Amino acid sequence: MNAEDLKEGTEISVLHSGAFTMSLPPQGNALEISPWRYQREAADGQVTE
């Protein structure tokens, strides 16, 4: 995914370790950022490919 692919409203998925600093605001590192690959079904709340 390139910076040019990111536009306002683009849904992404972020993989992170879960470790954050105790500062305000908390800071952490992303291990991977990728496009969101699933559609949400509004009717039943199920996640499908």
Automatic annotation (TrEMBL):
It comes from the Bacteria. This is Uncharacterized protein. It comes from Hydrogenoanaerobacterium saccharovorans.
